Amino acid sequence: MTEEIWVTRSAMPPMQEYIDEISALWDSRILTNMGVKHEQLRRALRGYLGVDRIDLLTNGHMALELSLQAMQLRGEVITTPFTFASTTHAIVRSGLTPVFCDIDAQTYTMDATRLEALITERTSAIVPVHVYGTVCDVGQIERIARAHRLKVIYDAAHAFGVTYRGAGVGSFGDAACFSFHATKVFHTIEGGAVCFREPAFGERLYQLKNFGIMGPERVEAVGANAKMNEFCAAMGLCNLRHIDEQIARRKQIDARYRRWLSGIPGVALRVLQPDVQSNYAYFPVRFDKAVCGCSRDEIDEALRRENIFPRKYFYPLTSAFSCYRGACDADKTPVAQMVSEQILALPLYPELPLDEVDRICRIVLRRLR
Ligand SMILES: *Cc1c(COP(=O)(O)O)cnc(C)c1O
User: How many Å apart are CA 319 and CA 332, to the nearest integer?
Assistant: First the structure.
């Protein structure tokens, strides 16, 4: 029986490194509430991500939800249905109405050419997703947002460390939200961050993540609790020391997959964008049965029989979730619909041995005609 291979595997720093990082907490007894580790990690990430302003939160979902709330939006928000549940839930849970824009068939990010047709007098913001770490059409989105006075909040959960024309991806938009969940390229066990442009937004975000408490006797907003604790921040400090070597390793694995799978009719790989330094977060492959002879589901089953567990990221579309039935219409985004039915994310994490990549590819190739 071969060992199970999952789509991802959480990175762990050397155990002693983490123990050294947290041992000061036994003396300080300051375990959360923006302690020393929180501030160290915040500064380190500001440098690593190449952004001016950043705050840390308890997870990526709250980063999105509280960003939407700190932006003081109303009405409709244009977004993509080709994403993780969190993006759409954050919009709806903030009392806003999601309006789904179709995606580009090559990049799988929001198709900016379809954006303007969806703008109404009720539109207040755009929430695009740098899905798989692929960078959205930031120039076009910014131009449209500026022309219509809309806020732009990027879901950058997949895009840690990605740069576009040398600029950190978190520096685009009014805000960009990162997830530091255990399964992501960089993690703090659970965690998230918001990079932002306006200091006033940062103040509102801070209020929302800490009960609106601004002093011992001053409560200025109806806030929630979304603070990152010191143990999570310490994990982040450890993981950040190893992130470059891990991304380099991901790049090797990505290249190995491409050696086997590129140039096959009906098999589409994630685009490598010019001007973008990728983080190689995922290896999604699109299988067009009419051309390659095998459906995504058949490939998925073939791999599962061999104890390899890829994931249908992202299927179904968020607009097709049962909780949104009737409220949204998945048929209005035919490209997203087609991609979600054909896409399969193959295993990719730094420790995945290259000979396992070879084995995965051989299983896939055996199924194609
Ligand atoms: C992981 C993820 C989130 C949510 O982040 P959490 O840290 O798990 O709360 C949001 N959006 C996308 C696209 C994600 O992949």
Answer: 10
Q: Are 270 and 281 in contact (CB under 8 A)?
A: no
Mutate to test the pocket of ligand 1, among 8, 10, 80, 155 (most ligand atoms within 8 A of CB): 155
The partner residues of 79 in beta bridges, in order of sequence, read 100, 127
State which amino acid sits at residue 1. M
Q: Is the CB of 229 under 6 A from ligand 1?
A: no
Phi first, then psi, for residue 219 (nearest 5°) are -120, 115
pLDDT of 1 above 60? no
Helix (H, G, I), strand (E, B) or coil at 214: strand
Q: Is 58 touching ligand 1 by the criterion CB < 6 Å?
A: no
Is the pLDDT at 369 greater than 80, yes or no?
A: no
Residues 6+ apart with CB under 8 A from 51: 168, 170, 171, 176, 195
Distance, CA of 141 to CA of 173 (rounded, Å): 9
The H-assigned helical ranges of the chain are: 15-28, 36-49, 60-70, 85-93, 138-147, 199-209, 230-261, 289-292, 296-305, 334-342, 354-367
67 in contact with ligand 1, CB cutoff 6 A: no
- Kindly report the number of other CB atoms within 10 A of residue 63's CB atom: 33
Q: How far apart are CA 107 and CA 75, in angstroms?
A: 28
Q: Whose CA is nearest to atom 2 of ligand 1?
A: 157
Cβ atoms 120, 76 nearer than 8 A: yes
The pTM is what? 0.98
Average confidence (pLDDT) over 76-81: 98
CB atoms inside a 10 Å sphere around CB 246: 19
Q: Return the amino acid letter for 185.
A: V
Among candidates 299, 61, 320, 67, which has minimal Cα distance to 191? 61
The CB of 155 under 6 Å from ligand 1? The reply is yes
Residue (of 134, 136, 129) closest to 157 by Cα position: 129
